[in-house]
Amino acid sequence: MINRLNVAIDNRGAETLGGAEEAAVTSAEDHLGFRFPDDYRLFLLHYGALKHDGNEIYGIGPSGYCSVVGATMEERILSEEFPKDCAVIFNLGMEGVLILLGSDGVVYEYSPYGMKSIFPSFTKWLEEEFFSL
User: Fold this and answer.
1) What domains does the chain contain, in order, with CATH numbers?
2) What is the model's pLDDT at position 65?
3) What region does 45 belong to: left with phi over 0, alpha with psi -120 to 50, or beta?
4) ∠ CA(118), CA(59), CA(34), 5° rounding?
5) Are the CB atoms for 4 and 11 separated by under 8 Å?
6) pTM
7) Closest residue by Cα to residue 28 from 60, 76, 58, 65
8) What does the alpha-carbon distance between residue 124 and residue 75 come to, in Å, rounded to a whole number?
9) What is the pLDDT of residues 29-73, one digit of tens each?
């Protein structure tokens, strides 16, 4: 995953915030109450968070910037129905649609109309969807 992502980042001019420390990843997991899937943990450790064409994948950045914890906790406050085993990794910025990553590794689309599985993994979503936005 990392080699392919490095190529995609270089080819598309994406920016990363720099890898997060293991302690920061563990702290985020503790705060949210579940362990991140392995591919997302690897993403956090290598890149922290990512920006591309005005879009941001939430992760662990300096001073809470692009924060997966901040975005997820905000949604938990706004809705009691928000799934406790999911984290907000991307905000589409329209009609309340969010992209969530479940503790099961599945990527979901979450909106006021419900939640549905859209990709089997963070890696698949990143490769097939994010860089095509």
Assistant:
1) 2-123 (3.40.1580.10)
2) 77
3) alpha
4) 70
5) no
6) 0.90
7) 60
8) 24
9) 999 999 999 999 999 999 999 888 888 999 997 777 789 999 999
